[in-house]
Amino acid sequence: QALKFKVLIKNKKVGTLEQSLLRMDDDYRGEAGEVSDSDAPSDSEDTDDTFPIQRSRSPSKRKADRRSSPLPQKKAKVKKSKIALALSDLVVYTKSQKFVSFEYSLQHQAVFENNSIGESQARKFVRLSAREFISHTARFITRIYPKGSRMTSSNYNPQEFWNVGCQMVALNFQTPGTQMELQDGKFLDNGGCGYVLKPEFLRDRNTTFTPRNVGGHSKPMSLSIRLISGHQLPPSSMSKTNKADPKVQIEIYGVPEDQARKKSSVIKSNALCPKWNETFSFHIQVPELAMIRFCVEDEVSLASNEFLGQYTLPVTSLNTGYRNIPLISKDGIKLESASLFAHVWYY
C-alpha cells in the first residue's frame, strides 16, 4: 500500500542503504563505485544478456582433456563492475543479488535483495524442487529471463513460472505470439497497473502447494461457455473475396492439471456474422492461476490455419451472463468492431 504510485529501481548497489543516506547531501555527480560479483560457473547455460556463451570444444581438445591429469581447480574469478553512485542510491527495495542456491538465500539473503534465474535452471527447479522454489519466491522477488540461445527472440511460456510465484517473468516484448498474449492478459487484472497480487498459497512461506500437487489449495470451478456467434471478424488475407472460414479455440492455461483446449466447428465463407451455438465445459482445479484464451482462426486447409484475432484474460476476471468478447490482433492492437458473443456460466 505504501509503495502505490512509486517506481522501484532494480539494480546492483554500492555499499549499504545507510551509506546511501549519508551521501544524500553530498554532490557526487559523475562518481562511480565498484561492485564485485563472483564469476563462478553455474549449472545453467543461461546468461542474462542477448548472446549465448559458446561452450563447445573441438573433438581433439576433448580427447586431450580426458588424457591430461586432473589439475587443481582454479578459484572463482571476481568480476568487478562500476555503478554510478547516483543510480546506486536509487536502489532501495530491489537490490540485484547473484543467485547461488535456495539454501544460501535462506541463510544469507536480505528481503530487499532479489535474484535473476535463467529459464533452463528455473525449469529444472520447477520440475525437481517446486516446493523450495515457491518458498523462495514467497520471501524474495525472483526474476526469470530467456536463455541467450534464443537467437530469434522467441519466448517461453510464462505460465509455468507464474505457477511457482515468480514475480518478474521477463519476455522478449518485441516478439508477438501466445506467450506475449498471456503476459498482456495476466495484467489486465487490477486495472492493468502492472501489479497483480499472488494467491495466498503462493505468499505463504510454509505452503504445501506445488503445481503438480495442488492438495487442499484446490477450489475447483466448473466453467461453461456457450459460444453463440461472431461479429465482423477480420477477413482472411488469403481470400480474394475477403471471406474466411472461421473457427474458435478456447484454451485454458494454468497448473498442469488445468491445461485444456477445445475447438468449435468451422463456419464456411462467413466472417461477417458466423453462428456456432456450441457449448464448451471446463473443470478448473486452481482458478486463481488459470488464464483463458479465445483464439479465432481461418481454416485455410486441413493442415494450416491463419490467425485472425484473440483475447486472453484471467479466469477469475470472467463475468457470468451474456458477454461480448473483443478481439486483439497479433500485434496487440484492438480490432475495432470485431468480437465474439458468448454466454458464460460457472460455479
Automatic annotation (TrEMBL):
Residues 87-203 form the PI-PLC Y-box domain. SMART domains: C2, PLCYc. CDD domains: C2_PLC_like. Residues 28-77 are annotated as: Disordered. InterPro entries: C2_dom (IPR000008), C2_domain_sf (IPR035892), PI-PLC_fam (IPR001192), PLC-like_Pdiesterase_TIM-brl (IPR017946), PLipase_C_Pinositol-sp_Y (IPR001711). Its cofactor is Ca(2+). The keyword Lipid metabolism applies. GO terms for molecular function: phosphatidylinositol-4,5-bisphosphate phospholipase C activity. GO terms for cellular component: nucleus. It holds the Pfam family C2. Residues 203-329 form the C2 domain. Keywords: Calcium, Hydrolase, Lipid degradation, Lipid metabolism. It comes from the Eukaryota. Residues 34-49 have a biased composition (Acidic residues). This is Phosphoinositide phospholipase C. It comes from Chloropsis cyanopogon.
